[in-house]
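_Per-residue structure_
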Amino acid sequence: MKKNNKRKKQAKILRVFRKVHRWTGALLFVFFIFISITGVLLGWKKHSNGIILPKSHYGTSTDLKEWIPIDSLHIIACKTLQDSISTNLSLELDRIDMRKDKGIVKFVFSDHYWGVQIDGATGNVLSVRRRNSDIIENIHDGLILDRYFNTSGKQIRLVYTSIMGLALLTFTITGFWLWYGPKQMKKRKQMN
């Protein structure tokens, strides 16, 4: 009798886990599609021949003593962006990425995903390209919604990543139990 009750209890737990697994998947299906596709694209960004992430070029010198001051390089990047793309684009920077080993400085702009690569020593513009990887990353982590709704503290991304992280944990636990539970039930049945 005790074994039968234990088996019923285990079967009930399996049904609950199956329901949680199914409903979590159904409710978050679209988000999982976005995360999986963008995750694959981000994994391949350096192997996309410059389609997802612009190729890094090489400058003429890796000796920082020979480089032009960063404020001068910044002026060159801003002028280049406005001359090459549009005078209407914001010049607000997301980051400045200095690659000493390659002799370049990358200026990545905030609002429109453009980047300018400049030779640190000569100030020559090496590349002006849209950084599709940044767009993909913002979709992947939900930051694109914070940008769209202009939230100040990135609250949407925090909620989004928390929900998706907890959902992945839920899927892992329930998925494991949906695989392991029936094996245990079968094993117990054979022992009876």
